[in-house]
Every structure is written in structure tokens, then in C-alpha cells.
């Protein structure tokens, strides 16, 4: 079924009419809730007597004109609320706002139930205020996020949510630590279920990192390596008895110097060629075969390695618990 599309943007006059109606309904809901609260307090004996003593004229007026006709007055408000629900439902159908035409009363259940003039359902009209404020916020007519009351509740809601989530996280991490301590085959299961299925990927990664590490190290230290090779060749020749005897011959000094230079050059070129060869496919395959042949040996599990693995995991979880214990809301609000 193709996605439903809303009708083109409404004319400005219709938009302003919607906005005006929203403000009108919001005002009615606030007045109605205030009246409900005051009438509930008016029924309390001490408050009723206090109003009678402080403002007898107002007490008589309210008791005779409003309180005695409270149900009728409330039904007048309810009639506007029912009209708002029916109007909103009609607009939702016209705009195809929901997948089915009858979804509106289920989505706005608090508006529908709030129209019932019974004490328990009247409290749902508070949600109607929230809904209207959200609608005005979405239209950009108000910015609730800048209100002091919103900032107050948002702050303590954030603190409460963080504290609850931290307590849950600490409990979960503690349970995981207990499971690690109680397990006798954790290392074997990690190797079998985590490492071995990724054996080829790990070996390939080892070969790539080795190639990259050796190449970078050689580039950064080439001069030092070449100097060390020259020194090694010179020392070897100086310590050779045959070279010492050769030096005693006529032109022997020149011959040994030339030999030393030639051997140093050959050794340096050999190292250069060897290090350049690490980027070849042959070298990578050699490293992968070497790593593959020793991979299973590296993963041999004994009591000591099993204990070390469990301790590492335990300490990592303990570090996470320390991080969770840090009350981040203090850094944000202090």
C-alpha cells in the first residue's frame, strides 16, 4: 500500500484559525482545572469555613452561583472539549494523518476520556494541557525548554534517571563478575566461540600490522641501521686474523679498505632489499603461515592462563563499575 501523503500546506488564515482554537482550548482547560481544584478545596470543612470568615460575600456568591451549578458549568466545558475532539478527528481524517480513520481516538485517548464528567476522568484533562503545549511547541509558537519549571523538572528527572540506570548497571556488572568467578571453562569458551571463528581474520591482521610496524620502524631508523651495519663490518674485519695479515702486505691497507667498503655496501643493499620485500605478497604469506602454525600453540589453555584471563575480565568490569559510580550529573549541574 503506498504511503499516505498529507494535503498541501494550509492557507495562512486556516493556520491562524487552528492556532487560535488551540490557545482557546488551552485557556478553557486551565480555567476548568483551576475550577475543579478550587471546588474540591471548597468542599473541605476548614477551608470552606476559612473562606466564609475571610470573604463572606464571595463565599455566598460561589456557593449559590457556581458550586450549586458545578455539574452544569462543567458540562459546558465538556461540550467544548467534545467539539475539540470531533474537530481534531475530522482534520486528522482530512489530512490522512493516521493509517486508518478510526485511529485518532485511540491515539488521543486522554482527550476522549477527559470528556467524561467524572472525578477520575477529569484528572486526564491535565494530559490535555501537556498535549496542547506539545502541539504549540511543535509549531514553534512557544519554547517550553526555556521555562524555569521545565528546566527544574528536567534537571531532577535527568538526575533520577541517571541514578536509577547507574544502580541497574552496577547490579548487572556485579552479576557478570560473579559468573566469571564461578565459571570453570571461561577461557576455553572464549577461545572456542570468539577467537577460533575469527582465526583467519586475526592472522591476516597480525601479518598486516607486522608489515606496517617493520616498514615504519625501518624508515624512521634507516640511517642508524646503516651505520650499525658499517660498524659491524668494520669491527669484524679488524678482528679477523686473515685481514690483519693482509694489511701487512704491500698495498694491503688499500685492499682491506676497499673490501670493507664493498662488504658494507653489499650488507646495506641486502638489508634494503629485505625490508623492501616485506610489502610483497610472498612475505605476507610467509608471515601468515608462520602465525597459523603457532596460533593453536599460543591459545593453549592451562590453569594459569585461565586464571589470568578471568582476572583481566574481572578487573575490566571493576573499572567499568568505577566509571559508572561517578555521578556525572554533578559535573553538569554544579
UniProtKB/TrEMBL annotation:
Any one cellular-component term (Gene Ontology) = membrane
Q: What is this protein called?
A: Ion transporter
Is Transmembrane helix given among the entry's keywords? Answer: yes
| UniProt subcellular location | Membrane
Instruction: Provide the alphabetized UniProt keywords.
Output: Membrane, Transmembrane, Transmembrane helix
Q: How does it sit in the membrane?
A: Multi-pass membrane protein
Main localization category: membrane
Query: Can you name the source organism?
Result: Vreelandella sedimenti
The keyword Transmembrane is assigned to this record = yes
Q: Provide the transmembrane region boundaries.
A: 21-45, 65-89, 101-124
Amino acid at each position: 500500500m503506498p504511503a499516505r501523503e498529507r494535503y498541501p500546506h494550509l492557507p495562512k488564515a486556516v493556520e491562524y484559525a487552528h492556532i487560535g482554537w488551540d490557545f482557546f482550548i488551552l485557556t478553557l482547560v486551565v480555567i476548568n482545572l483551576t475550577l475543579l481544584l478550587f471546588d474540591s478545596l471548597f468542599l473541605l470543612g476548614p477551608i470552606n469555613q476559612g473562606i466564609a470568615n475571610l470573604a463572606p460575600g464571595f463565599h455566598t456568591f460561589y456557593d449559590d452561583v457556581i458550586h450549586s451549578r458545578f455539574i452544569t458549568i462543567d458540562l459546558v466545558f465538556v461540550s467544548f472539549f467534545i467539539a475539540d475532539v470531533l474537530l481534531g478527528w475530522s482534520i486528522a481524517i482530512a489530512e490522512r494523518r493516521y493509517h486508518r480513520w478510526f485511529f485518532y481516538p485511540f491515539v488521543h485517548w486522554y482527550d476522549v476520556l477527559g470528556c467524561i464528567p467524572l472525578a477520575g476522568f477529569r484528572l486526564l484533562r491535565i494530559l490535555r494541557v501537556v498535549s496542547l503545549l506539545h502541539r504549540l511547541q511543535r509549531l514553534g509558537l512557544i519554547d517550553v525548554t526555556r521555562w524555569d519549571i521545565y528546566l527544574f523538572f528536567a534537571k531532577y528527572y535527568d538526575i533520577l534517571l541517571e541514578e536509577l540506570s547507574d544502580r541497574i548497571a552496577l547490579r548487572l556488572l556485579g552479576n557478570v563478575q560473579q559468573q566469571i568467578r564461578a565459571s570453570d571453562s571461561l577461557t576455553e569458551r572464549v577461545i572456542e566461540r570468539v577467537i577460533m571463528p575469527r582465526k583467519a581474520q586475526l592472522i591476516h591482521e597480525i601479518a598486516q600490522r607486522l608489515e606496517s610496524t617493520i616498514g615504519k620502524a625501518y624508515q624512521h631508523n634507516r640511517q642508524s641501521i646503516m651505520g650499525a651495519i658499517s660498524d659491524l663490518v668494520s669491527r669484524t674485519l679488524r678482528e679477523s686474523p686473515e685481514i690483519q695479515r693482509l694489511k701487512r702486505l704491500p698495498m694491503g691497507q688499500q685492499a682491506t679498505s676497499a673490501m670493507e667498503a664493498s662488504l658494507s655496501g653489499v650488507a646495506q643493499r641486502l638489508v634494503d632489499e629485505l625490508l623492501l620485500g616485506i610489502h610483497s605478497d610472498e612475505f605476507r604469506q610467509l608471515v601468515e603461515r608462520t602465525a597459523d602454525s603457532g596460533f593453536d600453540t599460543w591459545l593453549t589453555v592451562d590453569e594459569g592462563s585461565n586464571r589470568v584471563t578471568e582476572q583481566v575480565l574481572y578487573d575490566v568490569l571493576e573499572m567499568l563499575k568505577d566509571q559508572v559510580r561517578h555521578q556525572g550529573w554533578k559535573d553538569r549541574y554544579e
